[in-house]
């Protein structure tokens, strides 16, 4: 396994990256749909200009490319931002008849594309077609003065898609049609001598999809058959049920675990599941949260809070519970440091992880972020689900949606 060009931008060694996002070795020879890595998380938002500035100011991301009316894209603006190996693209509608605005009217701010870098677009599409996937964009070349990309797209849950891109013959800042852009936002100083600010996150760890009641297994099968993803972990029923709300979740991953997609569906409980609330306000299936890997979650959370990012509260009882203390054992910081920041901790047979969840980022109670620091654990915080969901329900109740 070697670092991808995007991963090299995170200034991490392969060993550090493996630990950070839980990578595993695998043999790509028999993979019908080899995936190199996640390429980008693409959002449609109500105001891409301000969203791009917000992500630079509050999440410390760097602007690196732009496309809009000034360079030939009449009806929308897109800003490409980076933090380490993670790339986000924010698109907003410019003209009143822009289809981007139709999408936004229905779904609000949200993720439209979980793009993946693949070494052979045509091979992936041939396999996807044979397995019955919907091909949204047929493989084709796009070129500019920086070279050529091969690109295609397949449909997944809701109105979400997976663009597949081979950028091995391309050296531009993002894709043909985009021009290089740079951040004008002033940065905090990084570690002494580094010459650059320290990032708040280094990589995308996983992207979670919420799908309709009874459809989770259908989408797990889709990822198994079409993308050759394997099942990682499974949470069902009581694992993540509280008194009022419940969900079921399964996780699929690419061979090397660079791309990990947990899939949730609501489960029947006394009151409305948080997944039902998402499905109602997003108007269908969609991406629920994106987990961002950091190697210093305490520092990241302190700065993000200072920058105005709001996190879910964790009850003090979570930390004072002797069962929790026994379950998690020794972690790298005193538990009081975690309690002060509301950071959750979970341990499994491979190690432990620290994690925290933001409140929804937009106006609708839909997409949010997780920040995660892995120490050997390849899990998703199963032991925290109940404590977390009880915290989410208090928020849901405050919005009158429980
Ligand atoms: Fe997560």
TrEMBL record:
Per its UniProt record, the required cofactor names are: Fe cation
One GO molecular function term of this record is: 4-hydroxyphenylpyruvate dioxygenase activity
Q: What is its EC number?
A: 1.13.11.27
**Positions of the VOC domain:** 37-167, 203-359
Keywords on record: Dioxygenase, Iron, Metal-binding, Oxidoreductase, Repeat
What top-level branch of life does the organism fall under? Bacteria
The UniProt entry, under Pfam families, shows: Glyoxalase
InterPro entries in alphabetical order = 4OHPhenylPyrv_dOase (IPR005956), 4OHPhenylPyrv_dOase_C (IPR041735), 4OHPhenylPyrv_dOase_N (IPR041736), Glyas_Bleomycin-R_OHBP_Dase (IPR029068), Glyas_Fos-R_dOase_dom (IPR004360), VOC_core (IPR037523)
As for family, the record states: Belongs to the 4HPPD family.
- UniProt-listed PANTHER family: 4-HYDROXYPHENYLPYRUVATE DIOXYGENASE
Name listed for the protein in its UniProt record: 4-hydroxyphenylpyruvate dioxygenase
């Amino acid at each position: 396994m070697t670092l991808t060009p995007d991963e090299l931008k995170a200034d991490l060694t392969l060993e550090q990256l493996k630990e950070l996002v839980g990578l595993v070795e695998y043999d790509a020879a028999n993979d019908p749909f080899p995936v190199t890595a996640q390429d980008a998380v693409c959002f449609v938002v109500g105001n891409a200009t301000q969203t791009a500035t917000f992500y630079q100011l509050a999440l410390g991301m760097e602007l690196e490319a732009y496309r809009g009316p000034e360079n030939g894209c009449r009806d929308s603006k897109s800003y490409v931002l980076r933090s380490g190996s993670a790339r986000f693209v924010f698109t907003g509608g410019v003209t009143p008849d822009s289809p981007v605005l139709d999408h936004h009217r229905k779904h609000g701010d949200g993720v439209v594309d979980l793009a993946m870098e693949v070494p052979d677009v045509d091979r992936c599409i041939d396999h996807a077609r044979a397995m019955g996937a919907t091909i949204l964009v047929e493989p084709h070349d796009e070129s500019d003065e920086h070279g050529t990309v091969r690109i295609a797209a397949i449909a997944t849950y809701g109105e979400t898609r997976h663009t597949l891109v081979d950028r091995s013959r391309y050296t531009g800042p993002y894709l043909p049609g985009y021009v290089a852009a740079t951040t004008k936002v002033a940065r905090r100083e990084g570690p002494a001598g580094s010459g650059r600010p320290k990032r708040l996150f280094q990589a995308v760890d996983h992207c979670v999809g919420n799908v309709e009641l009874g459809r989770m297994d259908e989408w797990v099968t889709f990822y198994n058959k079409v993308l050759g993803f394997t099942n990682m972990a499974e949470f069902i029923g009581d694992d993540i049920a509280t008194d009022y709300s419940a969900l079921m979740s399964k996780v699929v991953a690419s061979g090397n675990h660079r791309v990990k997609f947990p899939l949730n569906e609501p489960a029947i409980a006394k009151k409305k599941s948080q997944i039902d609330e998402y499905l109602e306000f997003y108007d269908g299936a969609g991406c629920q949260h994106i987990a961002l890997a950091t190697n210093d979650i305490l520092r990241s959370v302190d700065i993000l809070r200072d920058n105005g990012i709001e996190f879910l509260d964790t009850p003090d009882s979570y930390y004072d519970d002797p069962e929790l203390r026994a379950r998690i054992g020794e972690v790298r910081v005193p538990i009081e440091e975690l309690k002060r920041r509301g950071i959750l901790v979970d341990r499994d047979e491979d190690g432990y992880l620290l994690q925290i969840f933001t409140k929804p980022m937009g106006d609708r109670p839909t997409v949010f972020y997780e920040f995660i620091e892995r120490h050997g654990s390849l899990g998703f915080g199963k032991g925290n689900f109940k404590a977390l969901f009880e915290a989410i329900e208090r928020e849901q109740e405050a919005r009158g949606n429980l």
